[in-house]
Task: structure prediction
Amino acid sequence: MPVVSMMRIPGDADALVAAMREHVEPVAERLAEKHGGLATITVRDGDRGLLAINVWETEEGRHAMAQEPEIRDAVAAAGFPMPAFEGYEVLSMRVTERAVR
Result:
C-alpha cells in the first residue's frame, strides 16, 4: 500500500528550495526509484518554510531512503535542520494525465 511522507523544514522557503535543488534533489533523483519513490511535491509552508510531500510504494521504502548515508549527507550539506517526518497510508490516489506531462 502506498504511503505519503510529509517533512516540514523551517526557515526561508526560497533559500531552502535553492539548497534542496543543489544538494538534495540530485541524490534523491538517483536513489528514490531503488526505494519505491513515486512522487515529490515541495510547497511553501506559509511563512514557516517548506513542506515536502513524498509518495512511496511502501512504508519500508520511505524509511530505507531516509537511512541512506548519501541522503543524510545531502540534507546536512543543504544546511537543513533535521526535518519532522509524518507518514500516512494512502487510501486513494488519482493523478491526471495533465499532471505528468
